[in-house]
Amino acid sequence: MAAEEGAPRVAAKAGVSRVAAEDGTPRVAALRLHPLKSGAAVPVQEARFDATGCQGDRRWLLVDAAGRFLTQRAHPRMCLIRAVRLPGGLRLEAPGVRAVDVVEPADPARLAVDIWGDRVAAAPSSAAADRWASRFLGFPCRLVHFPDDGERLIGEPQANPGDRVFFPDRYPVLILSEGSLDALNARLAEPLPLERFRPNLVVAGVPPHAEDAWARIRVGSVELDVVKGCARCAVTTVDPASGERGREPLRTLATYRQWEGKVWFGQNAIPRVTGTVRVGDPVTVLARR
After folding, report:
1. How far is 176 from 283, CA to CA, in rounded Å?
2. Strands of 111-115's sheet, edge to edge?
3. Is the pLDDT of residue 180 over 80?
4. Rounded CA gap, 81 and 97, in Å?
5. Which of 77, 184, 216, 250 could join 287 via S-S bond, C-beta 3.0 to 4.6 A?
6. Contact in structure between 79 and 240 (CB atoms under 8 Å)
7. Any bridge partners for residue 188, and if so which?
8. How many other C-beta atoms can be found within 10 angstroms of the C-beta atom of residue 21?
9. In whole angstroms, what is the distance from residue 159 CA to residue 56 CA?
10. How far is CA 106 from CA 58, 63, 109, 193, 259, in A?
C-alpha cells in the first residue's frame, strides 16, 4: 500500500465525491496517465484527450531483445518504474538506481516491435535508457517511443475503421467509477487503491458498475464512445507500492464479476470529441446500451 492505509483511494475521492453527492451530478474524481506502459501511474489534474486517448499516455514501451512488449504480467517490478514527463521526453526513476533522462527520438530509424500480435514501427530510444532498463529488470531490454508517423489500428468490431491507438493493450481510454471500486473494496479484507486497475478516468457520483450501461458520455467538453468492458488480468494482483503479486482482487471479482470465462471491471472507451478534461468536470451520459 502507499504511505498510509487506504490513502490512494481516499485521496482520489477528496472533495469531488462530496460535490457529486451534493448536487447529484457525476464528476471526474481522478485522472491518471501512464507515460510508460506498465510503469507507475501518474496523477494529473487535467489531461488533453485526442483521438488516440490521453496525450502522453502509454507512448513509451519496453521490449525484450526480440522486440516483444513487456508488462507487469510477466515482470511485476515494472510497476516500480516511474516515468515523469519532461518537455520533449521523460525521466525514468526506480528504487535503487539513478534516474535517467530520455529525449524523444529524432532519428528516423525504426525498430519493429510486437504488441498483442500487432507489428509497430517504433522509434528506438538511447543506449543509456536501454542500459538503465536492462539493469533494473535484470535482462536485456530496450525502450521505444511511438512516433508521430506511427500506425497502429484498434482493429476491433467495437471501433470505427481507422481508429488508432498507441501502446495500450487495445483501447485508448479506460474508465472506472468510484462506486465500482467501493463495491469491490467492501468485499475485501484490505481495500485496494485505484492504481491497481490502471484507469485513465475515474468517475464519482454513480452507483457501482453504472459504467457498464454507458454507450456515450460527455466529460467536460470531451465526448467518448464507451465500447467494451475491460477483462482484467494478473496486473491487478501486483501491489504498485512493492511490486509483489498476490491473489486479489481477481479471486473476489470472480465471485460476482465473471462471465464468458473472464473477470470484468471498468469500461474501455474511444474519444470522439477532443478537448481537455479536468478533475471535477461534470460527466453526462449521452446514450446507454
Report:
1. 12
2. 60-64, 141-145, 118-124, 111-115
3. yes
4. 10
5. 216
6. yes
7. none
8. 12
9. 21
10. 19, 19, 9, 37, 46
